[in-house]
Design brief:
By secondary structure, this protein is mainly alpha-helical. It has 2 domains: about 80 residues, 434 Repressor (Amino-terminal Domain) (Orthogonal Bundle); about 60 residues. The chain is about 65% helix and about 0% strand. The protein is built from 7 helices and no strands. The longest helix is centred in the C-terminal third of the chain and has 30 residues. The protein is globular.
């Protein structure tokens, strides 16, 4: 039982490492931001390598992309949630785009997990893919919640209708 818990937290943090590196422009960019070597960042990005990003690197990368990716995971591992700072509103955020992204990501998760379940056995690679997909869905949900909270705080927002080419 303890081994399962250990593996679960490790895989959550490993998926968070990959997402944080991606949000900062990939391995080379993350290496520049953190002053770590590309090979070390690559090991932290690799599913099969046990190395995780050091805390100072996590702090730099989270500050650079503006999202507490690893901090959110660590809070969740302790049964906590982090709260978003008060914001003045959606600041040009688009709920239509956020909704479309969430729908797309959830569809990708559904397709991938459907394939994984088709043979009634979920492999470690399929499990890793499911984790990546669900973390992307969770991030998209967080984005949509932030946008909706902003519109609620500012008394609502008008949605500009999409116009197709040639329409007046």
């Amino acid at each position: 039982m303890q081994d399962t818990l250990t593996n679960a937290w490790f895989y959550q943090l490993k998926a968070g490492n990959r997402l944080l590196i991606k949000k900062n422009g990939g391995i080379e960019s993350a290496a520049d931001i953190t002053s770590l070597s590309k090979s070390q960042i690559g090991r932290c990005h690799n599913d099969t390598d046990p190395e995780l990003l050091p805390i100072p690197a996590v702090l730099r990368l989270e500050a650079e992309c503006g999202e507490p990716v690893i901090t959110r995971i660590m809070a969740g591992l302790h049964g906590r949630k982090i709260s978003e700072p008060d914001s003045a509103g959606p600041d040009g955020e688009c709920l239509l785009r956020a909704n479309a992204e969430l729908t797309k990501l959830f569809g990708e998760y559904g397709a991938n997990i459907g394939i994984a379940l088709s043979d009634l056995h979920v492999s470690p690679a399929e499990g890793a893919r499911g984790i990546k997909d669900l973390q992307a869905v969770r991030d998209a949900i967080d984005d949509a919640i932030r946008i909706l909270a902003g519109t609620r705080a500012t008394g609502g927002a008008s949605i500009v209708p999409i116009r197709m080419g040639g329409e007046g």
